[in-house]
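Backbones bend. Shown next:

***
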Amino acid sequence: MFNHLLVPLDGSHLAEAALPPALELASKFNSKISLIWVIQPPHLIMTAANGSVYAQLLAEMRQQSEQDAHAYLKAHQGSLRQQGYEVHTQVTEGENIADALLQVAENLKVDAIVMSTHGRGGLSRWVFGSVADKVLRYAGVPVLLIRAREETEDHPKKDQETIV
């Protein structure tokens, strides 16, 4: 039923809230897991810098983002493989994160997507929540959304909620 799961990560603890439910599904269905990180191309406003300096800076920023993403995913891959899971990683680039995730899901022919909603509010919710919303609306496979919550002084960290 769920032979291949896609789990988008971004380096945050909020995104990692999707891992426990994904691992639970993978255990029950003997699923392969693909961890994906979508990096967005860096943007800078060009002011006094000349074009070649600007281009070099953008290339360095993109390369650093890609290296950080690969290292992060490989660390998770190693840990999960030690636990007996079949895990693959992929770093891709996309201006629109949701569109990139949907394309990867289609290319990899995954059976489900397990991801965090990040549990943000206000403007952040509008910006970042739109990724989960768009994936939910347009994915051709089931999507399991996990509502992750940030820890604050007023509200200690609660377990994540599963949104079905």
Summary: The helical segments are 13-16, 19-29, 51-82, 97-108, 122-138.
